[in-house]
Design a protein that fits this description.
Length: 172
Amino acid sequence: MGDKTSAKFLSLGAIIQEFNVDGQNIVQGFTTKEAYEKHNSPWFGANIGRVANRIKDGVIQSLNGQQYQLELNDPPNALHGGSRGWGRCEFDGPTVLNRDGKTTLLYTYLSRDGEAGYPGTVELRVYYTTSEEVENGKTTSVLKIEYEAELVGDECKETVVNLTNHRCVCHI
């Protein structure tokens, strides 16, 4: 990273806590992990899953001919993977990697079969790469997020996955 761009993350939800551009944090959020645990109903900076958004009546209607009842944390619906959705779980990491010639941070989470009612065991990998890119003489600060979700485990049940990040970035 150059002198003008920096970032700070939490292992809780692999949350983007800060993204500093020209010395100014442009991410809405809290200053401590405890505040995220207590007050983060807006899901500031969190990675959302197993499924982002709502599932009507908290039911996966038909997945390989089976129906799955999920936790109803936004009655009558399931929201953002349940009350302990991925944005509220403790991730392993960061692990520092070189990815495509850039320094990258990796956070991982193992979601077990049956968590919040979802079938299948999924390993989630979240990669964060910050950089400064120059195009037409203009320098831009970039925060790149890449997701990998892999079905793992002996049960090998298929599942649903729909990821996003609640960036909550302010414009400066």
